[in-house]
Amino acid sequence: MISYLEFEKPVAALEARIAELRQTARDGDVDISAEIKRLETKSADLLASTYAALTPWQKTQVARHPMRPHFSDFIASAFTGFMPLGGDRYFGDDQAIIGGFARLGGRRIMVIGHEKGNDTQSRIKHNFGMGKPEGYRKAIRLMDMAGRFGLPVVTLVDTSGAFPGVEAEERGQAEAIARSTEACLALPVPMVSVIVGEGGSGGAVALASAERVLMLEHAIYSVISPEGCASILWRTSDKAADAAEAMKVTAQDLLALGVIDRIVKEPVGGAHRNPGATANALGAAIGEELDLLGKYTPAELRRRREERFLKIGQN
């Protein structure tokens, strides 16, 4: 069952009416199939027009939708043969960041990403996708392993930000994030990163410093959350919508600014309405990018990464 966002209420009302008519059609002798068809067309048109004109704040809500597919969903649908690898060999295993060997089509890769969880229990287990130092150190270990074995690295980013707790700071959160970013930039193999939901602050950049950065159509990517920005600038989170507009957090804005390289289309109504189709589109886009990057030498890959990030903001 779809969970509707506030701006989707007109669509929700239409779909509820359609469900009522379908039940009536099953229970009665009156043919109302024409009316159902008319309302289905109206609902589909309304959904399409609504999602074609989303504001940055509405896109933020879609990126955070509780039913939006996460790392584990994409692993199950877009990749095969996933073999998770745990631990940072220093402290422990952070379940907010997961990674391991996998296959994309016929290609062996190392895939790493944030996992938010899909229900209360799993969200607590995965710390809502907020990585701790041991999570980023695990990512560094897996990237080093990928470099030694000559495997391309794919990262799926979906986090509101790195975990800000005292214990994370005590274990070197800032250094872990910096070293993870450094590990991305130094990789001798192709790297493709995809912002699949929220891309928040350094916790996202630490897994997204690749030569090709993609975003799902309704994902967001920013240095701070809109609520955090509003709290700093206006001393109230009520201005989050204004902050989202000013910060240029959407895939469309970031593509125009040169921060990302490609937008991956989502099904009409967002990824949560058809996770399978989203995973297929994601897998195809990543495969195409890896095909293009496969022709470069390690030195060329590092140079392209360096040039990509140095030119951001120059225009």
Name a few traits of the molecule.
2-enoyl-CoA Hydratase, Chain A, domain 1, 8 strands, 8-stranded mixed sheet, globular, 315 residues, 16% strand, alpha/beta
Structure description:
This protein has 315 residues and is an alpha/beta fold. It has two domains: 6-53; 60-310, 2-enoyl-CoA Hydratase, Chain A, domain 1 (Alpha-Beta Complex), CATH 3.90.226. The protein has helices spanning 9-27, 33-52, 56-63, 71-78, 120-125, 133-149, 166-170, 173-186, 201-205, 226-233, 240-247, 251-257, 275-293, 298-310, and strands at 80-84, 97-104, 107-114, 153-159, 191-200, 212-216, 220-222, 262-264. Strands 1, 2, 3, 4, 5, 6, 7 and 8 form an eight-stranded mixed beta sheet that branches. Helix 1 runs antiparallel to helix 2 (33-52), helix 4 packs across helix 13 (275-293) and helix 6 runs parallel beside helix 8 (173-186). It is globular and about 70 Å long.
Q: Can you identify the CATH class of the largest domain?
A: Alpha Beta
Number of domains: 2
Q: Count of DSSP helices? A: 14
Distance linking N and C termini: 46 Å
Beta-strand proportion: 15-25%
Q: Helix- and strand-based class?
A: alpha/beta
Instruction: Tell me the CATH topology of the largest domain.
Output: 2-enoyl-CoA Hydratase, Chain A, domain 1
Low-confidence stretches: none
Summarize the SSE layout with pairings.
Layout: H1 9-27, H2 33-52, H3 56-63, H4 71-78, E1 80-84, E2 97-104, E3 107-114, H5 120-125, H6 133-149, E4 153-159, H7 166-170, H8 173-186, E5 191-200, H9 201-205, E6 212-216, E7 220-222, H10 226-233, H11 240-247, H12 251-257, E8 262-264, H13 275-293, H14 298-310
Parallel strand pairs: 3-4, 4-5, 5-6, 5-7, 6-8
Antiparallel strand pairs: 1-2, 2-3
Helix pairs in contact: 1-2, 3-11, 4-13, 6-8, 10-11
